[in-house]
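Exercise 7. Given the encoded structure of a 74-residue chain, write a plausible sequence.
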């Protein structure tokens, strides 16, 4: 799996910082650990396959999360 650490934009517009990849304790599936760059800055996890997938949005195929760069989150 290829996933760069850094800043990403979700297809709905909010930004997040990917801080690492963890393994699910029972399935050993790769899970992306990321922090919201808004609100209380909560931590989230999502399966890597779902994080990296292409989805249909308003009749177009788009990435669920788009990489913005590895600069430190602001």
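Solution.
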């Amino acid at each position: 799996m290829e996933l760069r650490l850094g800043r990403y934009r979700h297809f709905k517009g909010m930004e997040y910082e990917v801080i690492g990849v963890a393994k699910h304790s029972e399935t050993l599936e790769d899970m992306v650990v990321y922090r919201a760059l808004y609100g209380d800055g909560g931590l989230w996890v999502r399966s890597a396959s779902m994080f990296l997938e292409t989805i249909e949005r308003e009749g177009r195929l788009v990435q669920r999360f788009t990489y913005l760069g590895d600069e430190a989150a602001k």
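Remark. The chain has a mean pLDDT of 93. Students should compare their own answers with the one above.
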